[in-house]
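[Automated response] Your request has been received and processed.

Submitted sequence:
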Amino acid sequence: MTSANRRRIIAEDPTWSLEQVPFLSKLCLQAIMKNIEGKPLYKELSRSEQNFIQEKLTLHVPLKVTAKLIPDGVYWQRRSKELWDNCDVSYHGQSWKRLFFERFLEKLIEAFLPGETELKTILEMLPLCKDYVKRLNIEELLLPIRPQEEDEATSIHEEETKPTLDRFNFNFLLEKLINLQELYLVYRIKRCGMNYKKEMFQMTQGDCKTLAQAVASCKTLKVLHLHQSNVGDAQCRLLVKHLLNHPSLTELDFSYNYIEDRGARAIGKLLSRSKLRTLTLYCNKIQEHGARAIAHALSRTSTLEELNLGVNRVGDEGGQAIAKALLTNSSLKTLNLSANDVAERTAVSLADVLVHNRTLRSINLFHGQLGVNGGNALRKAMSKNSTVIKFVLDLTDMEEDDIGFIQDVVWANEERALSQKQ
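Generated structure:
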């Protein structure tokens, strides 16, 4: 048959062509996605078919369907990026599914308004996310709303006697998060504008009690950070009381609070009974007696590797006590006593440690008043030390020659450590 006699079929749709006819397998996958709520067949598909669904499944399928059905992968990456611009998966164990559920739960908690938000919004989410949430970073916690008329009419006496305004209750939450390992909290309101009130930036005693009970119930918790929440001695002691027998806590950070000596003594007791590896009390109000309590515990503990007491008020007596404790401690690797008014006696005691200690790797005495004699003692000690690889001595009133000599030793120690690793 000649080409002139061939029959031609002209489609009603001029854009139609054979190339646009989808494969039957694709049509089946599209049908599976369309009916995924009624017939969740994802796990019965091949790897390539599952990948297709990960890339094409609509992001509006209810979480009650996808949470258990769709494993970690592109689908959860797409769903995360739809909600948040900045998605750093490295903070979530390189898992997009974990990132999604951790951040989703964080936002629910941060938006929770006591007395207004229904608790079921979070309770319904817990069965879906509990297997994936290992880390929570809560950057604000809202206060209950008081009627404006009542607020304006409150007298000074009523202000002192009115009921405290407690925030989100973690007590019912943490015990259900069976894999939670890290908890970062700040009791504050981030965007208060001109409506600033002191109570917006502190935890109440009720908040402290429920948090203490919640942390005690979370047996998997390893890291607890409680920052910028006006935590004082009473609250610190209550929290520590519930942490004394915690089975897994290894890192505690109470930075930027108002902990003084009574709170520090409680923390010293915790050091003696726990398995803490990192203790950070940066920027509090701990003085000599609190430092002595921590030093006493430090001389007995065999697990603590990092102690940060920077920007407190331990003074030379407190600094000396900490240094002397290291004569019997063989676990501490990092010590920060910066901006603490430590002076010559601290330097001399620390020099005695550096001659014999082979555990310390990093020391920070920034802004200490060590003077010429303290600097000379440290120089002699460091001439016999081969393990310290970081030593901060800025603004310490030491002779420049002594600082230069110590830094040369530190650099040599660091190079030796790197070569041994290679």
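Summary generated for your ticket: The first helix runs from residue 24 to 34. The chain is about 45% helix and 10% strand.
If you did not submit this request, please reply to this message.
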